[in-house]
Amino acid sequence: MPVSPSYRPDPRFALLGSDYGETVAAAEFPDTLLRLRHDRAAAEVGLDTLTDDEWITHFGRFHPLPGQPEPVAMAYHGHQFRVYNPQIGDGRGFLAAQLWSTPAQAASGPKLMDLGTKGSGLTPYSRHADGRLTLKGGVREALAAAMLDSLGVPTCRVLSLIETGEKLERGDEPSPTRSAVMVRLSHSHIRFGTFQRAAYYSRRDQLSVLLEHARSLYYPHLKEGDAAGFLHEVVQAQAKLCARWVAAGFVHGVLNTDNLNVTGESFDYGPWRFLPHYEPGFTAAYFDHDGLYAYARQPEAVFWNLTQLAGCLKLIAEPEGLVTALNGFGPAYIRELRAAFLMRLGVKSVGEAADQRLLDCTLALLREKGEELRWEPLFFDWFGGFSSAARALGGPRGKVYQGEAFDAFRYALMEHEPDRPERLEHPMFRAGEPEEMLIDEVEAIWSAIAENDNWLPLTEKLARLEQARLAWGFSDPAGV
């Protein structure tokens, strides 16, 4: 079988036990049509050699992979738009397997990767929902993850999408609509809300077990029981994630505590959006009436969620160290934001002052030019720094690059040397336009599927995003 015994997880870590979730069975679907398999992601955990029939057996009918236990729906609580909800948990998904990354993908050491589902049926946490996923929802999640992966954002990948032959009723899209089951590959299933549930019941024993579980797997350099050190690592990881979102022009949409995990990896994409142009108040969710999770408020939302995690850890740790860890978020976020914008512009750091000046000038230019420039084209045109001036000024936006804001941006960019300029040799940079992921294109991709069962626009888009990922060269070999 493609799963080597040498890279299965230690049985102690495969499951946390019944205090943290319940064993469940997947739904039996009337059909299993394989629509998407992410072989690059599958290769990271030794699953790329599965035949399509084997793939459907494991990811459509959910027969456990060799050596893996039965699926477990994880229990957790969470603040949803800052209102505490003790009735959440995996209502339409479960942890299907945990596998160590393969040696070829383990440049920084093996990583324990989780296979989590969405749309796999009812669980004890489903409440009044049907436990299903719409096919459109699966397509949208695959697109979001692929775009973020191409832009160097720590993200899950959609490993599998299988159409399941049911007709679902939904209030927010034309119904009945087609159904699917999705499997995502991610680095952790431990959410902030997992800690919140234990704290809600004042279960210090469960909090201690969770802490040790997460510390030993994700931050093994920390000493056992070091809650403050653990929080520090989570804070730093979330600061990097949030900075990468902002540099990518991404709006998550629902930054609830159950949608953030302890490794700082983005996942569970619902009403997401990418900025068409610079707009601080841009929201992704139609129900976010107050703009709580608007583009520019995402750092605030992440920090608020981190304070909730710290509040849980206070039950098993002294508060002083936790406060110190939390206070590190602001400086870490600014540092990571500078690094993220340098990454996106393909230039090297020359010191904090000059790097900050380039960040400020980039945002000022995006703000001034707005719809005329859009978001993604600026980074495409000027990738590689001022060495791309001829390409940018001779391109379709050449006339946009003028005025005081552009002059300030140009001078700030001139201070920075190109980073790995050989990347500009990729054919992508000879195109006139970058790969974007705006809502009109997403809807057009879905319309082709919904109206004509035409999957070509989706497969072509994903192929272009894979080429963009290679061209930008942001991701590490494991993609996480």
What descriptive keywords fit this protein?
480 residues, alpha+beta, six-stranded antiparallel β-sheet, 16 helices, disordered N terminus
Written account of the structure:
The protein is α+β, with helices and mostly antiparallel strands and 480 residues long. Helix content is 41%, strand content 12%. The protein has 16 helices and 12 strands. Strands 2, 6, 7, 8, 9 and 10 form a 6-stranded antiparallel beta sheet that branches. The protein has a two-stranded antiparallel ribbon with strand order 1-3. A hairpin with a 2-residue loop joins strand 4 (78-80) and strand 5. Helix 5 packs antiparallel against helix 6 (204-218), helix 10 crosses helix 11 (352-373) and helix 11 (352-373) runs antiparallel to helix 14 (404-414). The radius of gyration is 22 Å and the shape is globular. The two termini are 25 Å apart. The relative contact order is 0.11.
> What is the helix/strand order?
HEEHHEEEEEEHEEHHHEEHHHHHHHHH
pLDDT averaged over residues? 93
Tell how many strands the DSSP assignment holds.
12
Number of separate helices: 16
Low-confidence blocks of residues: 1-14
SS-based class = alpha+beta
Q: Hey, roughly how much beta strand do the residues contain?
A: 5-15%
The dominant shape is globular
How much helical structure, as a percent, in the residues?
Answer: 40-55%
Radius of gyration: 22 Å
N-end to C-end Cα span: 25 Å
- How does the major sheet shape up? 6 strands, antiparallel
Short characterization:
41% of the residues lie in helices and 12% in strands. With 480 residues, the protein is of the alpha+beta class.
